[in-house]
Each structure stands twice: as structure tokens, then as C-alpha cells.
Write a structure and sequence with these properties.
Blueprint: E1 3-9, E2 13-20, E3 25-32, E4 44-45, H1 47-65, E5 72-79, E6 85-87, E7 97-98, H2 106-116, H3 118-125, H4 134-144, H5 146-151, E8 154-156, H6 158-167, E9 171-173, H7 174-177, E10 183-184, E11 189-190, H8 192-198, E12 207-209, E13 214-217, H9 220-226, E14 233-235, E15 238-239, H10 240-247, E16 255-260, E17 264-270, E18 282-285, E19 292-298, H11 302-312, H12 314-320, H13 327-336, E20 346-348, E21 366-368, H14 376-400, E22 407-411, H15 418-428, E23 432-435, H16 440-452, H17 459-466, E24 469-473, H18 477-506
Parallel strand pairs: 1-5, 5-15, 9-12, 16-22, 22-23
Antiparallel strand pairs: 1-2, 2-3, 4-7, 6-8, 10-11, 13-14, 16-17, 17-19, 18-19, 20-21, 23-24
Helix pairs in contact: 1-6, 2-3, 2-4, 10-16, 11-12, 11-14, 12-13, 13-14, 14-15, 15-18
Length: 507
């Protein structure tokens, strides 16, 4: 039987999954690595950690599965977007990667606006200058670490660094490249105008492919280390959300998904370029050739819950140890004991600044309404509701751009929570359906690999055959009405605090 590999290079771990041609999981493995925050608002990772995690997880799935290496037809890559990887002339990393949630580049965003023009930048890149995107990170290194910038010969994104280590090729693809702020989104190619105005040498950038295209073959050395066959095709793949869209079947108009990973995303497919001129949501090329997607992002979705667990839920972590339950299951059970609105406690999930609808690197997390009556259960529920309100903000903006959404899927680690699923359905006021595959991004990457080597005729047909859905959570009308009261208060809070966030960050 033919097999496909999908590798998802995430923020907390790399997950490698071996699928058969029916989209069924044969074996999977993951490896975690740290996130470095040397200063407030900074976020970095070591590229070598991604590579070591890729090697170990690839070898593990081949060892566990026992399948013949000749049966693996292709490798597809999914990865965290926007991270800056700078390599020297020998292909060695010059510094840690500045990743997507880093917020240090406010001055560089202003520099981009001055040099390109805010309106012109949105016309070309379909997005305003953002601290999370790659272009501002490149300028930050040039402005603050000139010696490193001078030595740089190649600029890659996280998954494309892994591709380079697998194949020796400097390549990227349209969905991930869209988040660099250097791509002409309507034309699906690097923008000579932006590169010229920012004085960035085009030769530093990788060749751009469509997501299902083959970008190279597995190097002999990488094959020996992983147990795979040398020359195994590696396709373009996609940024994590574009890959998850394929893995959830969101590959045609009217379809959307919400993913709750470290960040939270509301993503809608579009067969035409639709740009929000206010810059509140992102328009990127998607993994389906000739199509695009719109995406709203909240920076700290699952991260909010993980932050609280790691700092304040040692009892739940210890209680779950050695049982069939996860610490998050125990946290959810506590949260469920609180009522809608968490006893009048509202959480703003701005731990890492925010992107949609507030483009604000200064924004920070807030518990509003906290009193002596509140318990851990209330705080846990407020976390889930606050992230859901932020995702509702994203959905509202997408609908304001004219994108019609009739079908909402849910994926990501947070989507495993039954309580969170129902909260989202109630706050969205629309049905939310789960996806049977728990590894949507890896499945999407594997599907793209299958299309690239001709196992499937195209992305849409492959998704019809391979993507399966699970439970549907319908909104409860009285819950929706109750949540609306708190959502209206939630929406009022950020504008009232905006100036104070910046003042606090400038102290």
C-alpha cells in the first residue's frame, strides 16, 4: 500500500504522522522543544531544535509502523508561519529564529509604512505592516544586529528550514510566503516593489512554489538518519493554517474553520482575492492553487490556557498524572461548574499583543471584574469565554468583508474540549462540527504530498474522499442570548484600555 508523511512544525512541538492513501493514521510521533523569551514581548526558537525533532519523529514513525521505505511516496510540510530563519553562506543559522508571536518590531512596522506607504502595502501584500510578520523582523535584525544581517545569505521560514535540511533546496510556497509581507498576494510571487523600497536583496529569498508542487527529493544523509528512501519527493506544503484547512476540507467557498492551537484562528476559503482595507484580517494565498483565504488571528488562544495551567494548576497536573485524564480535562470540569459569564468575570486574551481586530503589540491580558468572590473555576471559564469572544471578533470581521460562511469546522488542541466546543457554538450562534482526524495540519500536508505525486487528482477531490467529520455542536439559543450581554461589554473594554496598554509598555 502507498503511504504519505505529513510533518507539522509547530510552536511547542513537531508532529510527524504516517498515513495510508485512505488518510488513515498508521503511526505518529512528536518531539517538544522550548520557547525562549529573553525580554518582555520577545519570542525565539532554535532552528536546530526543529530539525532534531523532525529527525527523531520521522525515525520513530518508520520504526513503529514497520512499513517499507519504498511505500512512502511523498513528504508534506506544515509549519508555524512568519518565523525568521537567517542562514550564512554555508547554510548555518546565524541566530535563533524570531518567531510569529514576537512583538519587538513596532518601530520597523512604522519604517515599512513610511517606505512603502500603508495603503500601497495593503494593495500588494493584502495586509498592513504587522509585528508578527517576517518583513519587520528582517528590518529589526538589520537595524539592531547589523553584523548578522551582513553575513546573511538565505532567509527561510521555519518549515522551509526543515525542507532545506531534508532536501538541500531553498524553497517555499505561496501560503507561508504570504505571511512574510514580501509577496505580491494577487500575483502569487515576490513583490519587486516592496523589496526595492525596503532595500532587501531578492536573492536572499527562496524560490516560490504552489503548495502541491514537488520542491526536491530527500538527501542521502537525511534518508539514512530517518529510515526513508533517498529521493523521496518533498512537496511545498503549507503554513499551518493553510495546511489545517486542507486537513479539515475547507477548500471551497462557504467553508470555514476555527483552530485553537497556541494562537487561535478563524479561516475562510475564497476563490477570489478579498482584501480588508482596514487591515483587521489577513488575506493570503491558500494551499489550493489559484485560490486565497481570509484569516483572523488571536495571538494567545490555547496559550492562555497553557499559561494558566503551567503557573496556577499544579494540583490538576498532579491529579491527572498516571490516570486516563489530561490536566486540561480536570481544568474543564472545574470551569463547567461556573456559570455563563463566569460570575461576571471577563478575560481579554492579549498575552502576546493582538492581531484581529486590534493591531496592537502593546495590548496585554486582563481579567476584568475580578473580586473576592471569584474562584479558580470562574477564572478557568473566563479564559475559555474570553478566547471565544476574541474568535467571535475574527468571525464578525470576516463576515463584514462580504465572505459568506455556511459551514464551520473546529480543530486544534483546544478543539478537543467538549466544553469549549459548546461555548464556541453558543457564542458564534452557529453549529460547529468536529473533524475526526486530530492531526488536521499533518493530514493536510500529507494530502498535498499525495496530490504532488499524482495519487490524488487535485486538492478538492482528495478532501472529499479523505476528510471525515464527527460531532456537531448546535448553539443553545438562551445561551447565545446570555453570552451576547457579556460580549457587548468585552467589545467595549479594549478601546477604553488602548492608551493605558501603551503607557504601561513604555514605562
Amino acid at each position: 500500500m502507498e503511504h504519505l508523511i505529513g510533518i507539522d512544525i509547530g510552536t511547542s512541538a513537531t508532529k510527524t504522522v504516517l498515513f495510508n492513501a485512505k488518510g488513515e493514521i498508521v503511526a505518529e510521533s512528536s518531539a517538544e522543544y522550548p520557547l525562549y523569551q529573553p525580554q518582555n514581548g520577545f519570542a525565539e526558537q532554535e532552528p536546530s531544535d526543529w530539525w532534531e525533532a523532525t529527525l527523531s519523529s520521522l525515525k520513530a514513525v518508520m520504526d513503529k509502523s514497520g512499513v517499507a521505505k519504498e511505500s512512502v511516496m511523498s513528504i508534506g510540510l506544515s509549519g508555524q508561519m512568519h518565523g525568521l530563519v537567517m542562514l550564512d553562506i554555508q547554510g548555518k543559522p546565524l541566530r535563533r529564529s524570531i518567531i510569529w508571536c514576537d512583538q519587538r518590531t513596532a518601530d520597523e512596522c512604522e519604517e515599512i509604512n513610511q517606505k512603502v506607504g500603508r495603503e500601497r502595502l495593503i494593495e500588494i501584500s493584502a495586509n498592513p505592516a504587522l509585528t508578527g510578520f517576517t518583513a519587520s523582523k528582517i528590518l529589526w535584525v538589520r537595524n539592531n544586529e547589523a553584523d548578522i544581517y551582513d553575513k546573511c545569505r538565505h532567509i527561510l521560514l521555519p518549515k522551509d528550514y526543515v525542507r532545506y535540511m531534508l532536501t538541500g533546496e531553498f524553497a517555499t510556497e505561496v501560503s507561508d510566503a504570504s505571511g512574510m509581507q514580501l509577496l505580491d498576494i494577487p500575483a502569487r510571487k515576490w513583490s519587486d516593489e516592496i523589496l526595492s523600497k525596503l532595500d532587501i536583496d531578492k536573492s536572499l529569498l527562496a524560490k516560490v512554489y504552489e503548495s502541491p508542487q514537488v520542491t526536491g527529493g530527500l538527501r542521502e544523509e537525511a534518508a539514512k538518519l530517518t529510515g526513508l528512501k533517498a529521493g523521496t519527493p518533498v512537496v511545498g506544503g503549507a503554513g499551518d493554517n493553510a495546511a489545517a484547512a486542507v486537513g479539515t476540507g475547507v477548500v471551497s467557498d462557504g467553508k470555514a474553520f476555527t483552530t485553537i492551537g497556541t494562537s487561535g484562528v478563524v479561516y475562510a476559503h475564497s476563490s477570489k482575492v478579498t482584501i480588508d482595507l482596514k487591515g483587521r484580517v489577513h488575506t493570503f494565498c491558500c494551499a489550493v492553487p489559484g485560490a486565497w483565504h481570509l484569516m483572523g488571528v488571536t495571538q494567545a488562544a490555547g496559550l492562555s490556557r497553557k499559561w494558566f495551567r503551567d503557573n496556577f494548576c499544579s494540583d490538576e497536573v498532579e491529579a491527572a498524572r498516571g490516570t486516563q485524564y489530561d490536566s486540561y480535562d480536570l481544568m474543564d470540569a472545574k470551569a463547567a461548574s461556573s456559570s455563563i459569564g463566569a460570575n461576571r468575570l471577563i478575560y481579554l486574551p492579549y498575552l502576546m499583543g493582538e492581531r484581529t481586530p486590534h493591531l496592537d503589540a502593546w495590548a496585554r491580558g486582563v481579567f476584568f471584574g475580578l473580586s473576592a468572590m471569584h474562584t479558580k473555576a470562574d477564572i478557568l471559564r473566563a479564559l475559555l469565554e474570553g478566547v471565544s469572544f476574541s474568535l467571535k471578533d475574527c468571525l464578525t470581521v470576516l463576515e463584514e468583508t462580504g465572505v459568506s460562511i455556511s459551514d464551520m469546522a473546529l480543530c486544534g488542541g483546544g478543539g478537543k474540549s467538549e466544553l469549549w466546543r459548546q461555548i464556541l457554538a453558543d457564542i458564534y450562534a452557529c453549529p460547529v462540527k468536529t473533524v475526526r482526524s486530530k492531526e488536521s495540519a499533518a493530514l493536510g500536508a500529507a494530502i498535498l504530498g499525495g496530490v504532488g505525486v499524482g495519487i490524488y487528482p487535485n486538492v478538492a477531490d482528495a478532501c472529499k474522499d479523505l476528510v471525515e467529520y464527527g460531532s456537531i455542536y448546535d448553539p443553545v439559543s438562551e445561551n447565545t442570548d446570555e453570552y451576547l450581554k457579556f460580549y457587548e461589554i468585552y467589545k467595549d473594554l479594549y478601546p477604553r484600555m488602548k492608551d493605558s496598554f501603551k503607557r504601561l509598555g513604555s514605562v
